[in-house]
Amino acid sequence: MPDLKHRWKNKQLREQVAVIDHKKAPTLVLQNARYLHSAMKRWLTGNIWMYEDRIVYIGDAMPASADEIYDCTGKTVVPGYIEPHVHPFLLYNPKTFAEYAAKRGTTTLVNDNLMQLLALEKKKAFSLMEELNRQPVSMYWWCRYDAQTELDNEGDIFANGTINSWLEHENVIQGGELTGWPKLLDGDDMMLYWMQETRAMKKRIEGHFPGASEKTLTKMTLFGADGDHESMSGEDVLKRLMNGMMVTLRHSSIRPDLEKLLTEMKELDLDQYDMMMFTTDGPSPSFCADGLTDKLIKIAIDHGVPPIDAYHMASYNAARYYRMEHLHGMIAPGRLASLNILTNEFHPNPEAVLSNGIWIKKSGLDTSPFPNVQWQRFGHKKMSFDWELNEDDLQFSMPFGIEMVNNVITKPCNVIKDVAGEHFYMNEDQNYLVLLDYEGKWRVNTTIKGFANKVEGFASSFSSTEDIVLIGSSKEEMKRAFERMKELGGGIVLAEKGQIVHEIPLPLSGIMSDQPFETVIEQELKLKELLAERGYPFDDPIYSLLFLTSTHLPYIRITSQGMYDVMKKTVLFPTIMR
User: Fold this and answer.
1) What is the Cα–Cα distance from 440 to 442, expressed in whole angstroms?
2) Which residues form the Adenine deaminase C-terminal domain (predicted)?
């Protein structure tokens, strides 16, 4: 994806016009296509000419010749799908997620920059964005205003100059998501300044307002929020629409809400979809096994949304919202040649996919045009540890612990026994819990209830802060899991009875795998199976790990500052220096 301000140079524009004058041949023609014309909001039949990565003509005419003619007789063609809310670090990485998504027709992605902010120097992060532009999809980015946790060095990471540089980058098309909106309400003028700068640059601001009242949503709109993806009911959708917000309907691994939302919207007579789009909201890998945006389109159609509206929610609406309809979301001259060829409009999983004029899938077969990324060049490398886990690191004396209510919500609980020994008894459903600074400077020691009752040793470098999480009933096995995670250079490890039971290597900053998406799905499914056998009662351990340190959800978290009360915004017990 070259320069966005000058997508095509003068020479390329002249060549594209020469195709219309029959002085040059199109590189590809989709012949006899039944296609969605979004401006007309109807299905038309004709021929779609492309020159390299751009649509140059739609209509009845055929060129005298073309480099390739693809017969679409009996097929239906729609714009490439747009995923507006990607967290591209849920074990997978931005490249592997994009490759997997593109095979299912999602060829434009708007990515969270949180892990690039936390893990990389700004210069390397920007160089990585340029490298990812070599992929045959369209990748855009957000700019975070906060870390969604409590960091000792947050002021350094979220320095004014850094945030302004991100906002000014042409690949960044929105600010947010606003996980720190309570700070905004409490008077954080730096965040408000960044929001004003974002609006001045004609870029969008994405909210994060679960459970927000009408009053709070109104305040957020006045501050500058343009949209939100946290609707959990039809009433939530209505409140956001009434405030003029773009409503992103979510169907994710921790909030698979789309069917419920559509049912309740119907009950409220909400049948206008122009201010709505879809997201899978950075799902755990296995949630994607049966589809991404294509799955959401199918759910919408099955729940009575007119097919054209369903496809617009996955393409045209998002393109208009981000002011990119000159490039995306429409089958018309001048737009990028990103198209999905379907059996018909009731089967949104495409049999063929074009992205930026390149075949991603053709006649049901993957074409694998995605170049490898040398992650190490940009700073995403194996974790290295110059410190050892010692006996003091596994000493526990805190009077209360954390209890899991569901996948991601936690609350305080009493410690049920003396925690000074080497083991917890497994039938007590309570385990040791340690958060260790990646650099070995500090630790937080407590207990966790409700995670599992038969886990002996568990270690993970996967967390929202890139620090190390240890869980288990046996200090010996926790240490074994940690040592193996350390050998891997980052990862998730389950140990018991002197053995490593399962591991997921995460060599990219301890957060992401470098393996194909399908491999990561298998690894995650195995982890879920093993944890379920050992008493994990929920369905998304990946998000449980991610959000143990996240302070944008209630009620109590472990952070780099210590045990943290989210509602009172106070540190209950500080970290212990090692």
Assistant:
1) 6
2) 408-569
Task: Using pLDDT thresholds of 50, 70 and 90, give the confidence band for residue 30.
Answer: very high
3-state class (DSSP) for residue 332 = coil
CATH code of the domain occupying 79-329: 3.20.20.140
Cis-peptide, bond into residue 70, ω within 30° of zero:
no
Residue 76, phi then psi, degrees to nearest 5: -120, 135
In which element (H, E) is residue 484 found? helix 475-488
Q: Long-range pairs for 393-396 at CB < 8 Å and ≥24 separation? A: 393/434, 393/436, 393/443, 393/445, 393/578, 394/432, 394/434, 394/445, 394/475, 394/478, 394/479, 395/420, 395/445, 396/420, 396/432, 396/445, 396/446, 396/447
Q: Are 486 and 468 in contact (CB under 8 A)?
A: no
Q: Which residues, listed in sequence order, are joined to residue 495 by a DSSP beta bridge?
A: 457, 500
DSSP bridge pairs for 69:
29
Which ranges in the chain are annotated with CATH 3.20.20.140? 79-329
Q: What tens digit of pLDDT does each residue of 433-449 get? A: 999 999 999 999 999 99
Helical spans, DSSP H, in 179-327 = 181-185, 189-200, 214-223, 234-242, 258-267, 293-302, 307-313, 316-321
The amino acid sitting at 120 is L
Rounded CA-CA distance 260/265 in Å is 8
Least confident range of 12-16, 105-109, 246-250, 395-399 = 395-399
d(CA 390, CA 383): 19
At 179, list the tokens.
């996980």
